[in-house]
Design brief:
The chain is of the alpha+beta class. It folds into 3 domains: 33 residues; 42 residues, no CATH class; 48 residues, no CATH class. The protein has a two-stranded antiparallel ribbon. It has a two-stranded antiparallel ribbon with strand order 3-4. Strands 5-6 form a two-stranded antiparallel ribbon.
């Protein structure tokens, strides 16, 4: 069969082209997995705290567990208090005039902090 990529056309009827394609697939498959000593061959780009202000640096979160990675999730974005977040989300619902799919109001402690256990159809913890 023929394959066109922009202005380049490949004819896969020839044995050489099929062999080349198979070799490329094998190279990608072998190099695409994490071998036991892969970290000794990987050069990682460092992640600085300045680049990861809204998250935490996971020292083994990058490629094959070899490289640091900035992890930004809702768990680490808790710069506002629970009370403030609850008020902001409630205002969003009020403006919409109806419930918003996927939006749930957090459960707060009396001091305005997040309750350690948040239950809304599923459970998540708000602290370490």
């Amino acid at each position: 069969f023929n394959f066109e990529l922009g202005y380049i056309s490949f004819n896969f009827q020839s044995c050489k082209m099929k062999s080349l394609l198979l070799a490329i697939c094998l190279i990608v498959a072998v190099n695409g997995r994490c071998s036991p000593n892969i970290c000794s061959r990987v050069r990682c780009r460092g992640v600085t705290p300045a680049e990861c202000q809204d998250g935490i640096i996971d020292p083994n979160g990058g490629y094959c567990g070899c490289c640091p990675k900035c992890v930004k999730t809702a768990l680490y974005e808790a710069k506002e208090t629970c009370k403030d977040k609850r008020t902001r989300l409630q205002e969003t619902v009020n403006k919409a005039g109806r419930p918003i799919l996927g939006l749930s109001l957090p459960t707060c402690n009396e001091d305005g902090s997040f309750a350690p256990k948040q239950c809304k159809g599923s459970v998540m913890c708000s602290g370490p």
